[in-house]
Amino acid sequence: MLTGGGSQSAIVQDLYLAHQGWLQGWLRKKLGCAFEAADLMHDTFIRVLSGQDAGQIREPRAYLTTVAHGLMVNHLRRKELERAYLQALALLPEPETQGPETRALVLETLMEIDALLDGLPPKVRRAFLLSQLEGCTHAEIAADLGVSVSSVRQYLTRAVRQCLSLLL
């Protein structure tokens, strides 16, 4: 447990001074980019500052690594989603290309959908996306996934329940 003996911000400041160097190095090794590592290192400490009582952290490095890893996974997921979106846009004819504001809104919507489907098993996510984005029939989805049509129905029900539970 940290014993900064002060306010949350003073404890996090002590934590930052003691651990920011190795955390940024750890992130740089994982990401291969010093700039992204610096951004995520700062985001990690902001998350700690706004989170639980920092004075209760017993294993600072393990705690910071866990927080940073979660942020890194979200960061990489967002980059992959953005890359796929930009790749799809590049295939569109010139008159159908979108302005920067529209792109940002679409990307934000895609991130929200991704967050709604987060935690679902891969086959459930794929079945939902094939149904909603590709307009595939249950039989087509079943063939694509190598499962029965009744499994597809169960997957879609589960995905819709997940979305509704998070929206309510």
Automatic annotation (TrEMBL):
InterPro entries: RNA_pol_sigma-70-like (IPR039425), RNA_pol_sigma-70_dom (IPR014284), RNA_pol_sigma70_r2 (IPR007627), RNA_pol_sigma70_r4_t2 (IPR013249), RNA_pol_sigma_r2 (IPR013325), RNA_pol_sigma_r3/r4-like (IPR013324), WH-like_DNA-bd_sf (IPR036388). CDD domains: Sigma70_r4 (cd06171). Keywords: Sigma factor, Transcription, Transcription regulation. The keyword Amino-acid biosynthesis does not apply. GO terms for molecular function: DNA binding; sigma factor activity. It comes from the Bacteria. One of its GO terms (biological process) is DNA-templated transcription initiation. Residues 15-80 form the RNA polymerase sigma-70 region domain. Residues 111-163 form the RNA polymerase sigma factor 70 region 4 type domain. The keyword Transcription applies. Belongs to the sigma-70 factor family. ECF subfamily. This is RNA polymerase subunit sigma. It comes from Microvirgula aerodenitrificans. The lineage of its organism: Bacteria, Pseudomonadati, Pseudomonadota, Betaproteobacteria, Neisseriales.
